[in-house]
Amino acid sequence: MSASWDDEREGEGGLGVEEFKKNVGSLKEGLSRTKENAILREKMAGLSEKEIQRAIDDAERRDAFKDKD
Fold first, then answer.
1. How many Cβ atoms are within 10 Å of 4's Cβ, its own excluded?
2. CB pairs under 8 A, 24+ apart, for 22-25?
3. Is the CA virtual torsion 27, 31, 34, 40 positive or negative?
4. Distance between CA 21 and CA 10 in Å, rounded?
5. Are 12 and 19 spatial neighbours (Cβ–Cβ below 8 Å)?
6. Maximum C-alpha span of the chain
7. What does the alpha-carbon distance between residue 3 and residue 10 come to, in Å, rounded to a whole number?
8. Any residues with CB less than 8 A from the CB of 61 and at least 6 apart, and which?
9. Is 48 helix (H, G, I), strand (E, B) or coil?
10. In degrees rounded to 5, what are phi and psi of residue 39?
11. What is the pLDDT of residue 65?
12. Residue 1's closest CA among 15, 17, 20?
């Protein structure tokens, strides 16, 4: 049994401790994003469709500006 999430790759080390640590880190990141998404959904609940679209457009403009640098 391997601690790797990649079925084609054998786990490294005796018990796959490094893979396990990496996977736990990935799970923590995912849970953090889930929490952030829930907060954003809650904030968006009181906004109109127009306000939401304007915020999305602003975010896309900021991202495009960052990509130019």
1. 17
2. none
3. negative
4. 16
5. yes
6. 56
7. 8
8. none
9. coil
10. -65, -45
11. 87
12. 15
Could you tell me which residue, 7 or 49, shows the higher pLDDT?
49
Q: Which of 15, 13, 14, 16 is nearest to 4 (CA)?
A: 16
| pTM value surpassing 0.90 | no
| pLDDT tens-digit series, residues 7-48 | 666 655 556 778 888 889 999 999 999 999 999 889 889 899
Q: Which residues lie closer than 8 Å to 44 by C-beta, 6 or more apart?
A: 52
Kindly tell me if the per-residue pLDDT of 54 is higher than 60: yes
Q: Residues 6, 12, 18, 20: is their CA dihedral positive or negative?
A: positive
Structure tokens at 54: 């304007």
Question: Can you list the alpha helix ranges (DSSP code H) found in 1-69?
Answer: 17-44, 49-68
Q: Which amino acid, one-letter code, is at 59?
A: A
